[in-house]
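Changelog-adjacent note: as of this version, every example in the card shows the full chain rather than a window. The one below runs 400 residues end to end.
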Amino acid sequence: MKLSLKQLAVYLGLVVIGSGGGVFASRYFWTHNLSFQQLKNVAVTLPAESVVPQPVNGILNSSGGDNVNFIATAVSKVGPAVVRINAIRKISNPMTEAFKNPLFRHFFKEDERLMPSEKIERGTGSGFILTEDGKLLTNAHVVADTDTVQVTLKDGRTFEGKVVGVDTVTDIAAVKISANKLPIVKLGNSQNLIPGQWAIAIGNPLGLDNTVTIGIISATDRTSAQVGVPDKRVSFIQTDAAINPGNSGGPLLNAQGQVIGVNTAIRADAQGLGFAIPIETAFRVANELFTKGEVAHPFLGIEMIDISTTTKQRLKEEDQLNIQPDVGIVIRKVMEKSPAQTGGLLPGDVIQKINGKQIKISAQVQKIVESSTVGDILAIEVNRNGKTQIFKVRAGNYPQ
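Full-length structure tokens:
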């Protein structure tokens, strides 16, 4: 490429700023013994790889530099459908109960009259739009204890959102706003995720709207017990994309910009660790909330643990269970009057297959049960005292 003096000056100025090209310039003039006057008639040929990329419509193209990559493309597709959710809750003031004590009332009579009976608590989270007519999905803890929320779109429009339903078991909530022709997300598939794949999170952490973070899928099928929230019934996706308070309810995307999970900031101490609810679970629950207002969760009523040398020894010492197999999932406890007890399962049974599918880890059991419906019959093959037996257990409704 040939450059005129003016173009060369511009180029050298760019290079000096960007890559130490002043050394190149001084060497060129010194080697060729050129005066500034002689440069008027000089044209310099530069190698193609050294050409500074020029922006097109304000964005550098793929010929070099910071090109529009898959992350920017994915975010541009989904960003308009990601919303900020502001929730306002009225909670009772614990101090008002204290002032009912005669001793407090005697000494702090004036303060009692100034003490409000309720406190206002404000929270911010994220969500995303499923349908053009205003159906939204978010986390249950974002909208807990409130009937209406404020929903703000990326374009600045604000709507009052009605909380249609909340499911604390999976931490999913359904919200509806009155609007039409809204931007929507495209749902992906989380069933075949592989650790190491790209993961993109969008949300409003700390009130900073439409913040984008990038990472990878760190692991899949993390049980709620592993994550540290045993009261939930979810197999989590683990990611190292930054997920902070305010991200809860926002989408986790794959490289194509499809939603594969719902981000949830459930562990305040999870430094560098993020978790998301698989989109299949989240969408199924949200759909039931929109249609029925509540969700029926199938359950068996067992406490289980993966077999290892350590767990076998612990079960022997703590529960007097002598486990023979080296692989499988041990039933540690069976709830009274539960589907598992009715179906004939006992503590010490080692689950090997469910509906003919080989079982290796407890997360598989949880996933199979979650994907079933209340009333489904599950054929559970167990090893009991060295003998293989099959029990048919009808999934029950998870007790509240």
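Structural remarks: The mean pLDDT is 81.
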